[in-house]
Design goal:
four-stranded antiparallel beta sheet; mainly beta; 1 helix; about 50% strand
């Protein structure tokens, strides 16, 4: 496979289903390759962090503005964007998709974990699930409970 003219700095990882590969090109961008067609299907700026969802249907992207967005691997469209409130670096999903973890900001010695403490509303139904699932729904409502008590703002 040949691609961007900038030097390849490293291979990030394969998608869980092995159909795609994420690479980083020196001071240029992150590229998502479809291995079957040997072509680049997505490109994200170098200052962002990327990872595949565990079901290999999307790529999560953590941006410098503190947002995390999910982009479909089928058509490259942005499915969802949320703002957890801090910049996440080197993001990774838990294998079951319940958590997304990342380094909490530049020069940090802390890890931020976004867990499954949320509910999503679709029409009159409330669904609970994992972070990747919440990002794919139309509206997101975040609800946090500690020892069974729901916290309110």
């Amino acid at each position: 496979m040949s691609g961007p003219k900038s030097a390849l700095s490293w291979i990030h990882f394969f998608s869980p289903d092995s159909r795609c590969l994420a690479t980083y090109h020196q001071r240029d961008a992150h590229y998502i390759w479809h291995l079957g067609s040997q072509s680049v299907v997505m490109r994200f700026p170098a200052n962002e962090s990327v990872c595949f969802t565990p079901d290999s249907t999307a790529v999560a992207v953590a941006s410098g503005d503190g947002s995390v967005s999910l982009h479909s691997l089928f058509n490259s469209n942005r499915i969802r964007r949320v703002t957890p409130g801090l910049r996440l670096l080197n993001i990774k999903f838990h294998p079951d998709g319940a958590w997304l973890a990342g380094v909490a900001g530049e020069r940090s010695n802390s890890v931020a974990v976004v867990d499954g403490l949320y509910s999503t509303f679709i029409g009159d139904q409330t669904n609970s699930g994992n972070f990747a699932g919440a990002l794919t729904n139309a509206a997101v409502y975040v609800e946090t409970a500690v020892n069974g008590v729901t916290l309110t703002p």
